[in-house]
Specification:
The structure is a homodimer. Chain A is α/β, with parallel strands linked by helices. In chain A, about 25% of the residues lie in helices and about 25% in strands. Chain A has 2 domains: about 150 residues, Quinone Oxidoreductase, Chain A, domain 1, CATH 3.90.180; about 150 residues, NAD(P)-binding Rossmann-like Domain (Rossmann fold). In chain A, helix 2 crosses helix 3 and helix 2 crosses helix 8. The longest helix of chain A is centred in the middle third of the chain and has 14 residues. The radius of gyration of chain A is 20 Å and the shape is globular.
Chain lengths: ~325, ~325
Amino acid sequence: MTMNKTVRLARRPHGEVQREDFAIAEEALSDPAEGQFRVRAEYVSLDPAMRGWMNEGKSYVPPVGIGEVMRGFVSGTVDASRHAKFKEGDTVSGLLGVQSHAITDGQGIAKADTSLAPLQTWVGGLGMPGLTAYCGLTYVGEPKEGETVVVSAASGAVGQVVGQIANIYGCRTVGIAGGPEKCAALTDEFGFDAAVDYKKEWLADDLKAACSDGIDVNFENVGGDILDSVLPLMNFRGRIAICGLISAYNATKPVPGPYNFRSILVNRLRVQGFIVFDFLDKYPEAYKQLGTWYKQGKLKFREDVRDGGLDAFPDVLKLLYSGGNFGKLILKV
Amino acid sequence: MTMNKTVRLARRPHGEVQREDFAIAEEALSDPAEGQFRVRAEYVSLDPAMRGWMNEGKSYVPPVGIGEVMRGFVSGTVDASRHAKFKEGDTVSGLLGVQSHAITDGQGIAKADTSLAPLQTWVGGLGMPGLTAYCGLTYVGEPKEGETVVVSAASGAVGQVVGQIANIYGCRTVGIAGGPEKCAALTDEFGFDAAVDYKKEWLADDLKAACSDGIDVNFENVGGDILDSVLPLMNFRGRIAICGLISAYNATKPVPGPYNFRSILVNRLRVQGFIVFDFLDKYPEAYKQLGTWYKQGKLKFREDVRDGGLDAFPDVLKLLYSGGNFGKLILKV
């Protein structure tokens, strides 16, 4: 008999995520009730937002409760169904949780057309990252042709898509990433006009040199020193789309905001936070546009698929916060 | 023969403004050339922005040069004219500089109708403060009826107008000010629904108690700890209109941004900087609306008019940064 392997939140992490924050166990497998179906997970998406979901208290979405299956986007195959619209063998994608088998009524679950893209890409470039990049850049950053767009964590899952979409929009694109390998990939693989290495000593100077016309749009994933290097270079009426502040996610004490906060006033910036769930009404348009660009070869996604199954989930998750991954981090179940 | 008394910038201040940062002198009086007129200053507006104008380097507007007459809004009477539209005896208002007599071609100078409001009010409530409050609240804060609007430096020139306009818009208005006297005036004189004293120990708790439905719009004049108390209370999709960051104006070393910066992302805030000069196209509408409300008795302005003439300018200016004034600070020439 097949079991359901589950990854449950055992305790709230203090600082960096530890293996002991999760309880991994084999549990009895349930069958779907009328109106439900069961999905056998094949790929689990690992997202920076997961760290926030593990914290107590108010955040973007309610925290995962202690003892609950860890929240996560998953793609897989329906292996049992008593649902009218999903049948055995269908490939699907959605928020099914970090477990080998999930029972669902189908709410928020999308069919994953593998003739368009492989199953991993449905939790990869076409999943959260693509939607986040498209909606955030288009509707918060509002770049115009010829403007300069700077993306931090540019080699990350979202960042690499942001740069490519900004290119499609006719912008000059500058990516900030850590180390020569990632920076080279930004320009060589993803078509960024320039890449700046934040691990070098003079980020502010290097960024200034790469943005000779200043910065009109900043798609911010990091915060901290990186945002502080961006702020003084922002042009009049520039826009900062705050997608993530990953530099502070593991902080255990208060972290100061950007020292160059005053640039918001001096340059009359608009700084706006968003998450992908804010744009539910834009998803059909976003999927269609992203899918079209993908088929046209205008978008590529670098996906970093890790083996090891669900047992490896805690260790793979930690890569997100150490800069140890490159591209969308996915765990093969 | 009458002389022109001038207040010129002698050096750039380091930290707090000092008397020695200015050179006050009597100079020969010029006559207007063809197309010009001369204004005898009666009231000089003292504005927090002046400290920024004295700094070297990029800011909202170019700095005042060393040796130049200090920039300032002035109302007065035309005492000599070779200009087609302004004649001797006209009362006017505009950016005429901190001096007893100014020669101008009339660009940016408005006639000050003293049947509507006294001459001091043309550099007071109807001047920069009214325009700033109206344009910033209406077009950046975008409050809706029933929302909660929090104003910092609420007893200041701009703040007291912001609260009254928010009231007119049907909002719940909460003002932050220093000391029981100022707080009492906010509720008793200016119709704020609540006032919170930042000089008491528990600003964050007191503010929370005063904003039981959270904060939808923050009209921010101060920054620092006060903005940090506001940020966690902001409601989903709240707006922060950054009008000033007076807490940092005298800083001589880098000042951290708000520790609760992350609220921008968590609550999907829009934080936007503006200055009154951004809304030139809205001035006719703003003057008309403010004037109408003023005549209807819906707006009142507390003006703090100081004597002492131009010699007192440096000392009166310092009151702005020490919290020593209440309401729009004006110097009688």
